[in-house]
Amino acid sequence: MSENYSMTIGGAAVRATGTFGVINPATGEVAERAPDASRDQLDAAMTAARAAYPAWRRDEAARREALLAAADLLFARSEEIGRILTLEQGKPLTDATMEVVGAGVWLKYFAGLELPGEVIRDDADARVEVVRRPMGVVAAITPWNYPLLLAVWKLAPALLAGNTVVLKPSPFTPLSSLKLGEVLRGVLPPGVLNVVTGGDRLGAWMTAHEVPRKISFTGSVATGKRVAAAAAPDLKRVTLELGGNDPAILLDDVDPGAVAARLFGGAFQNNGQVCSAIKRVYAPEALYGDVVDALAEQARAARVGDGMREDVQYGPINNRPQYERVGELVAEAVAGGARAAAGGGPIDRPGYFFEPTILADVADGARIVDEEQFGPALPVIKYTDLDEALARANGTHFGLSGSVWGTDADRAAEVAAELECGTAWVNTHLALSPSQPFGGIKWSGVGVENGTWGLYGFTEIQVIHRSKT
Question: Which listed residue (32, 99, 275, 421) is catalytic?
Answer without folding.
Answer: 275
